[in-house]
Every structure is written in structure tokens, then in C-alpha cells.
Amino acid sequence: MRPEWAMRISLKNLRPLASLFSEDLAIDLGTVNTRVYARGRGIVVNEPSAVALDESTGEVQAVGREAKEMLGRTPGKIRVIKPLKDGVIADFKVTEKMLSYFIQKAHQRRTLVHPRVIISVPSEITQVERRAVTDSAYRAKAAEVHLVEQAMMAAIGAGLPVTKPGGNLVVDIGGGTTDVALISMSGIVYSRSLRAAGNHMDESIMNYVKRKHNLLIGERTAEQIKIEIGSASALEKPVTMEVKGRSLIEGIPKTITVDDSEIREALNECVAAVVSAIRVALERTPPELSADISNRGIVLAGGGALLRNLDKRIRDETGLPVCVADDPLCSVVRGTAKLLDDFKLLRRVAVD
Predict the structure, then answer these.
(1) Distance CA 289, CA 195 (A)
(2) Is the pLDDT at 11 greater than 80, yes or no?
(3) Disulfide: which of 71, 132, 142, 262 matches 117 by Cβ 3.0-4.6 Å?
């Protein structure tokens, strides 16, 4: 029989060993990118939400970054699918395959792993859409699934004191949706989700270039233009960029030069929709919480927060201080990850 002191040492050593083999995952299931945080290891997956399928056999050819590289470059029988549209699942089967791939990748290809999973979803997701996300995760071999709102997770990931009585206004500009939420005491006082976000900005640039320059460009080119010279208000120094596409008139490859003022004009409708949603949220904020927001300001998260001068535009139009969260692209997944160690808070903020 083992002595009591030996048993105490064994039990003491078991705790860190258990944490090493923890199967809990936090997933930011985004329209553009999916990020997976593994407990104890940090962000282990950060890849595009895309799947390349062979339509003749139904087999998956590539997932994530490899699939995105194929976009617009595949033969007829291979199709690159983005299974999420405007923050919700548009293709159930492909989403399930994508989740299975990312969960296995997060657990280093161990197929027998059945993790507990927390997934962030847009604020105004319907009951049917929630069930679709949950079912896809369970079919991807998750043992337990919890859904949380992206705006709340962005606020937690940005380090805002969401559990205390006081107003926190967060604007999470993702790929498919922009979530505007007023948060106090671990609850959402007001929220709105609008379909004016990163993807819609890319579409606006594609349509503008087509209309103004008679040039067809792809999604990847439009995204590159947005990143390099896109802005929400006038820049200190004008910038230009060479853009390659197909001429609508001549039908051959053509290169043109666009400047930041043109792209700003193309993006104006989307930016104005985000600013309008923020103004509506401020109008519906209770007086006591308004005082908190005037002191704390507005926090921007998500990839759209990186658009040049967006914080300045919002500051000019609202008169409130505006700041961009540290690492805005990963605010949601980092906020979701914090719930892996705080199940008490998870119970308070879960939407399922």
C-alpha cells in the first residue's frame, strides 16, 4: 500500500498533467476567417473559412488557406465554397467538414478527441441558425457546445470591464456582419447586427471599379485594394495603387491606377451604415450608461476596425473618444477563450 504522502504528491502532479491534455476549444466561426484557441496552447488555427470540393466525387481537396489560394483559379469540377454568409451558415455539410478539419488540426490530427467547444455567433442570429451552428459542431465530434455573442466576446477580448455596472459600447466589424452592442453587468442592454462589413466593402470596391473603369476584378484583388489604400476619411498624403483585371470593353487583361479618394467613395455607403448604427445605439442608451460611454468611449474590434481613419470618422461624427482594440482581428477568439476558464461567466453570457 502506498504511503499517504506519496498519494498527495501524485494527486498534486495530476492537475498540471490534466491541463496538458485539455480538450476545450474556443472558436470564432467567422465569415472570412475561422480562429481556434486551444486551452493551454493559444490560437492554433487562424485560416480562411473556405473549402475546395471536387464536385464529381464530393471529396474535400483543400480547407482554409490552401482553399482560398485556389479561389478563381480552379478547373470546372473543383469549386471553392465559403460556407458562411453574413455571419451564418449557408452550407451545412461544408461547414461540418470545415469544422471537423479545424478541430482535428487544433488537436494535432487526433481523430478520437471530443472537445468541449465554445463558438461565437452574431448578435441577431435566429433560433434556426443557432441550431445549425450547434448541429454542425456536434457532427464535427464536439462533446459539448456553447454559443456566445461575438460583440460580448469582442468586449471581453478587448479587456473591457463587462461584469461591472457601467456602459461599454463595442463595435465588432467582421467579414459578414458588424455588431454594435451596449454591455453592462455581463448582459447586453442593446445590440444590433447589420450586413455592412468587410465582405460588403470588397463588393463595393469591385462594383465601383467595374462601373467607373470598366474593369472586372476578383474578390482577392478588391480586398488587397481595401487593405492598401482604403480609408474612411481623407488621408494626410494621397496614395495610389496599380490594379490588374480584365477590361469589359476589350476583353483582355488591363492595368489601371486608382487613388485613395476613389476607394473612399466606393466604401462610403458601408462606412456610413456603420456610423448610423452607432448613432442609433447612442440614442437608445439609458442616461446613466450614456455618462459611462462619454468617459470610456467606443471600442472598435474585428478586421474592419483596421480601415484607415475609421476611428477618426466615428470620433468626428459622434464627438466621443474612439479607440481600436489591441489585436482587433483576434479580439473575439481571445474573449471566447477566457470563458474556457470561467464557466460561471459562460453560464451568464451563453445564448443557447
Answers:
(1) 26
(2) no
(3) 142
Give the 3-state secondary structure of residue 350: strand
CB 267 within 8 A of CB 232: yes
In terms of Cα–Cα distance, which of 313, 320, 23, 277 is closest to 151? 277
Digit-coded pLDDT (tens) for 208-257: 999 999 999 998 899 999 999 999 999 999 999 999 999 999 999 999 99
CA distance 168 to 162: 7
What Å distances lie between residue 109 and 104, 257, 262, CA to CA?
5, 46, 46
pTM listed for this prediction: 0.85
Describe the chain by its helix, strand, coil percentages, rounded to 5: 45, 25, 30
Full strand arrangement of the beta sheet holding 116-121 = 42-48, 33-38, 25-29, 116-121, 144-149
DSSP string for 196-226: -SHHHHHHHHHHHHHHHH-EE--HHHHHHHH
**Cα angle value 73/329/26 (rounded, 5°):** 95
Q: Which three cell numbers stand for residue 94?
A: 461544408
Query: In 90-199, at which residue ranges do the beta strands (DSSP E only) sit?
Result: 116-121, 144-149, 168-173, 178-184, 187-194
Distance separating alpha carbons of residues 245 and 210, to the nearest angstrom: 10
Q: How many CB atoms lie within 10 A of CB 212?
A: 13
